[in-house]
Amino acid sequence: MDLKNRLSEIAETASTEFANTHSMEELETLRVTYLGKKGKLTQVLKGMKDLSAEERPVIGQLGNKVRDEITSQLSEKKALLEKAALDKRLSEETIDVTLPGVKPKKGQGHVITQIMEEIEDLFLGMGYQIVEGNEVEEDYYNFERVNLPKNHPARDMQDTFYITNEVLMRTHTSPVQARALETHDFSKGPLKMISPGKVYRRDTDDATHSHQFHQIEGLVIDKHITMADLKGALEALAKKMFGEDREIRLRPSYFPFTEPSVEVDVSCFKCGGAGCSVCKQTGWIEILGAGMTHPEVLRMSGVDPEVYGGFAFGMGPDRIAMLKYGVEDIRNFYLNDQRFLEQFKVKG
Ligand code: FA5
Question: Which of 111, 244, 245, 337 is deepest in the core (most CB within 10 A)?
Fold first, then answer.
């Protein structure tokens, strides 16, 4: 049989075979049978080298035509089979819309974040603004500008991680006081701010101490601010965090940046003041440090202490969370154990 007839025969059988193919696997076998390296068409075209110069282009053209036909039949069939497979799947996979859905697990903020947001909400509601501070701070702002000059003995209580001699991981949020005071424009009104964030101390980690913890600083500076204003703000805080019938008491204390300075206790939320293990039988629990802003702090920030004055407070939300939820070891907050953290859901 000459090449011309063989090509026509190939075209014919291919067309019948493609028409009778019902699966992708069969189709692939056919592709190899006709178009593969050792396929029928390839074999015929290889024989072209023995043809005369006149016959070669004629057979070549016919060969190309047959290959194009086979290729297009192949892709048509492929599309048909794919569509049939999809239709079959769609008809089989019926969806029962009445089945209960799978609810994605809803995450929540870390318990300390939740506590901080609760405190932020309270103070925002009382007209305070939230000011961000630097975790990496200058020694000058962390200590000197809050009245803790170099070699001041009170620095020892807050020994920390120095990066250079003059730059450190801040030991408290109080440097934000100095930074806010020096940028605030008092001609536009009083300064009322809180500043939440992380702080660092070279404390040895134990049940109540962590080398990294959180603080929320508060500062109110205006004309005619008194200690009664401080007490009012802190009472609102105690009631919001520990319950409406809580009371607070102020005890004399010492901070270089406030004068007078106080430690603030809240009446025990567990026993109501009668004495129990939470309040160590005293009826009171210490929650923060506070006081009336030291004139020197104002003066160093260019604010006239003869005209302006106010109060500041600094609290540890980690300790507040421990008290509120009866957590006995502060380190639990930092272990990232989901089973522990999932228990706390302050909001909705
Ligand atoms: C201060 O840091 C003052 N800057 C607070 C202040 C601000 C007073 C403004 C007056 C006016 P103190 O070192 O006491 O104070 O720390 C404040 C709170 O941080 C503590 O009451 C405690 O709740 C928390 N705290 C202190 N050290 C740690 C620690 N290692 N781990 C966890 N919480 C701590």
Answer: 111
